[in-house]
Design brief:
With 147 residues, the chain is an alpha/beta fold. It is built from four helices and eight strands. Strand 6, helix 4 and strand 7 form a beta-alpha-beta unit.
């Protein structure tokens, strides 16, 4: 169950996100990491459930400036895909911070079911300062690929 939060519908675990994506045909995954992360870290693969993620940067690399046109870019892509404003939109980034901000901004723009995938693709740092060992999309064994 999502953990409710102010400004958006709440946080999901990666397992909850995968369940929603697989069971709700209208649900979409929006990866808000940078192009560099998509290329070097890898991307979630939704082929097994007949879907493809939406890739729109929340912040640019290397400056980390927030993309001012994020919600309009996303809105255009959702419209192109025929996604209704009530459809579940699941946002993901490296560890859940940027995706939470993107979910809040998208909720403010009129989409009512925006969720943050809390642990993200790589999860938080472990005790030795590394990701991909505590939690996240990859640690859970969910499908992903590199180009």
């Amino acid at each position: 169950m999502p953990h409710a939060s102010a400004g958006y519908r709440g946080d999901l675990t990666v397992e909850e996100a995968w369940e929603i994506l697989g069971s709700d045909a209208s649900a979409n995954l929006i990866d808000v990491r940078t192009q560099a992360e998509w290329a070097y870290v890898g991307v979630p693969s939704l082929e097994a459930i007949g879907k493809s993620p939406i890739f729109i940067e929340w912040q640019t690399f290397p400056t980390n400036a927030i993309v001012p046109s994020f919600t309009s870019l996303l809105g255009a892509e959702l419209e192109k895909r025929g996604v209704a404003e009530e459809a579940p939109l699941l946002f993901v980034c490296r560890s859940g911070s940027r995706s939470r901000s993107a979910a809040i901004a998208t909720t403010s723009s009129g989409y009512v079911n925006c969720y943050n995938i809390g642990p993200g693709i790589e999860g938080p740092l472990d005790g030795t300062g590394h990701r991909n060992s505590v939690s996240g999309w990859k640690v859970a064994g969910l499908p992903w690929s590199q180009t």
